[in-house]
């Protein structure tokens, strides 16, 4: 089902719909009657399914802005399987990970690593990404190349404009920025790898053995390694990112790109994030409308 064609519901209604979908899926999978425990309710609704050892990602606000949310979750599960089979440190997809469609919402199932009470240090983040690239650099050759800078940008903008949440003038300015940003990276990139796609410490979870495992693989795809390095080197702030990027170079024994070399990739990353905020602001204005306005101002009006 194309969630992007459905009229938006209120955030509480979407949350309740997602909880019911997770409950229904657990029952359909023979996991019994569970009461989902909400872990996060942002772009996706992340819920623990108590007693099953599983966490469900219910594609809610992010899914609404995509033409085919099931395709994106299918890519996420496929990369999770590739990484698991290769021995990479990844949160394992469940045996019946899906994705599953329930009441028009798409859901994927993952191993529950328990409550998280810490964040990876810059050095730990760098080590985790270096290991990902080492193990998976040549993996996933059949995966698409960089859909994250194409459909992941255009679809939220189309969705928001269609529902009257993005005026034509702003949409045209964002489209020009997209075209220019794509042109700026044409021919760039030193090595194509299986990208994590959103490689920051917020997407690392610690397992029972104290190992950091990559989570949230919706943006994983083939592409230039500079994309992952640009995100690592800029998140969550400039100082922390710079420390992580330096550590990555030390761990891999390779020179890391300069900020000037990473700037064209960060330009696209900023646009991707802005498009996501705009899409989420349609269905979750309380959380995302103001950040979306600020991001638009900084990107095309500042």
From TrEMBL:
- List residues of the Aminoglycoside phosphotransferase domain: 75-253
Identify the Pfam families for this entry: APH
Q: What is this protein called?
A: Aminoglycoside phosphotransferase family protein
Q: Which organism is it from?
A: Ornithinimicrobium faecis
From which lineage does this chain's organism come?
A: Bacteria, Bacillati, Actinomycetota, Actinomycetes, Micrococcales
């Amino acid at each position: 089902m194309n969630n992007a064609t459905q009229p938006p519901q209120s955030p509480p209604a979407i949350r309740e719909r997602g909880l019911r979908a997770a409950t229904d899926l657990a029952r359909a999978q023979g996991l019994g009657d569970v009461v989902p425990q909400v872990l996060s309710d942002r772009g996706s609704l992340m819920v623990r399914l108590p007693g099953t050892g599983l966490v469900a990602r219910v594609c809610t606000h992010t899914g609404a802005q995509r033409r085919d949310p099931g395709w994106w979750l299918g890519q996420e599960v496929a990369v999770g399987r590739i990484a698991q089979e290769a021995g990479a440190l990844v949160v394992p997809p469940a045996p019946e990970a899906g994705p599953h469609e329930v009441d028009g919402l798409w859901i994927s199932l993952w191993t529950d690593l328990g409550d998280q009470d810490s964040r990876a240090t810059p050095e730990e983040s760098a080590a985790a990404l270096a290991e990902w690239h080492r193990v998976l650099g040549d993996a996933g050759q059949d995966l698409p190349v960089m859909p994250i800078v194409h459909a992941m940008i255009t679809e939220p903008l189309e969705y928001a404009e269609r529902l009257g949440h993005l005026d034509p003038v702003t949409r045209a300015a964002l489209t020009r920025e997209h075209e220019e940003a794509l042109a700026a990276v044409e021919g760039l990139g030193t090595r194509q790898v299986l990208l994590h796609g959103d490689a920051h410490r917020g997407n690392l979870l610690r397992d029972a053995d104290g190992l950091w495992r990559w989570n949230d693989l919706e943006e994983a795809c083939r592409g230039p390694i500079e994309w992952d390095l640009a995100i690592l080197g800029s998140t969550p702030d400039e100082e922390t990112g710079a420390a992580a990027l330096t550590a990555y170079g030390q761990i891999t024994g390779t020179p890391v790109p300069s900020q000037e070399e990473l700037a064209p990739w960060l330009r696209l990353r900023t646009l991707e994030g802005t498009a996501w905020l705009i899409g989420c602001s349609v269905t979750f204005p309380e959380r995302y409308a103001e950040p979306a306005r600020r991001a638009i101002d900084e990107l095309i009006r500042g």
